[in-house]
Amino acid sequence: MIDLHTHSTCSDGTLEPEELVERAKKNGVEAMALTDHDTFDGIKRARKKAEELGIEFICGIEFSTDYDGKDIHVLGYFIDENNPKVNSKLKELKKEREERTYKIIEKLNQLKLKLTIEEVMEEVTGDLISRTHIASAMMKKGYVYRRSEAFNQYLGMRGRAYFPKEGLKTVDAVKMIREAGGFSSLAHPKLIPYGHEKMLQLIDELKENGLDALEIYYPNFSLKDIAYYKRIAEERDLLFTGGSDFHGLNREGIDVACSGIDKELFQKIKNKHFKGKV
Ligand code: AMP
Ligand code: MN
Ligand code: MN
Ligand code: MN
Asked: Which of 59, 204, 214, 234 is deepest in the core (most CB within 10 A)?
């Protein structure tokens, strides 16, 4: 019962970091990582609660990166949340998110969907704006019934109000994690809109730049999917990670630890990571 992929109110989840850890405890979790998008804001609070409840806690983060115009997520583990270089990049990325929000709102307004920055900010629970919050504001105004509709029609890669974030390239995220002494994993590879060849190309390029693992245990990945990515990983001497991608009420039907990894794999990750380090 180990969950290496969760979100709190510090990015686009609906549970506070402490509440998230409490829920993990209730679900029998023995070790976990908080992996908010582009922020370490919740780490200290989650760690404190995890210590209280006797859960092993890993500092994590999920970087939103750009690869050829595609939105690709890279998980970083075991980074010191006070690392100055990483934090200065995170500051930039937060600013880019703000600027993007204004562009999206402007585009939605042009499409005759009236939305203000105040209405979006009302949905924001931490220090960072995500499209999840814009989708919530759109639902509240009755422009869409479902979150998926907001993404499919407007906010997603093929949506009419899509604006990419280009502030962090995928390769640079992997390098930055390595330089910061972290362990990187390519998040939910099945959600990347690439066929076999392009996927291998991406993974090979990331591996060359220090990628450590692929996230192969993820909600709704079939046994076939898992076997497919496991094989790709094994052929490249990459490890595997896994988790629930829990977002509280912002992702229906997903609970903490509904997907994850076992102790044996967790030990392998730690062995690979700490090998050769004091
Ligand atoms: P952002 O961090 O602003 O790029 O927004 C990305 C977030 O939006 C993801 O982390 C998901 O939580 C959410 N998201 C992306 N696509 C969808 C979708 N099709 N349906 C619901 N939520 C989505
Ligand atoms: Mn999210
Ligand atoms: Mn993701
Ligand atoms: Mn995630």
From this structure: 214
